[in-house]
Design goal:
The protein has five helices and seven strands; from the N terminus they run αβββαβββαβαα. By secondary structure, it is α+β, with helices and mostly antiparallel strands. α4 runs antiparallel to α5.
Length: about 150
């Protein structure tokens, strides 16, 4: 059952898992995304998940010894994931609330579940450890993790 749009918008939040095809990726294949934070009540910040064990990002992370920036999440009944999943904390995606809402209204985005506090903490640490995340973003992350 699809939630009313107003309720959906109010329910967007940290740790929630969404499934959609992002125009910000080089593929039209839908991916799972985890909401990291909402900035100024207008921007949704997400990290992308992959289940591909041969993923180029994973190999690059391992080669550069940035292990803390790769978070493994096992599927369970709460998170809605269907396979072992990896989050690359070296990249994040931003959507305005309006863009996110439009995806939902057009049935292009599904809410799947919520990740554990433990996995969320690992993602925050991974983003903070990443050499590719902007200092301003890291400051926002530090504020929510305190």
């Amino acid at each position: 059952m699809k939630l009313p749009v107003d309720f959906f918008v109010q329910s967007i939040g940290q740790r929630k898992v969404y499934y959609f095809s992002s125009s910000q990726l080089n593929t039209a294949i839908p991916h799972y995304f985890v909401c990291v934070m909402i900035v100024d009540t207008s921007t949704v910040v997400l990290v992308c998940c992959t289940s591909d064990k041969e993923d180029k990002r994973r190999k690059r992370i391992e080669k550069l010894n940035l292990h803390s920036t790769l978070v493994w999440i096992k599927p369970d009944t709460e998170n809605g994931l269907t396979k072992d999943t990896y989050v690359d904390c070296n990249t994040y995606f931003e959507y305005t609330i309006e863009e996110f809402t439009t995806l939902y209204e057009n049935n292009l985005l599904e809410y799947k579940g919520i990740i554990s506090e433990t996995h969320y903490g690992q993602i925050i640490l991974g983003l903070l450890d990443s050499p590719t995340i902007a200092i301003e973003t890291k400051e926002l992350l530090r504020n929510i993790s305190n």
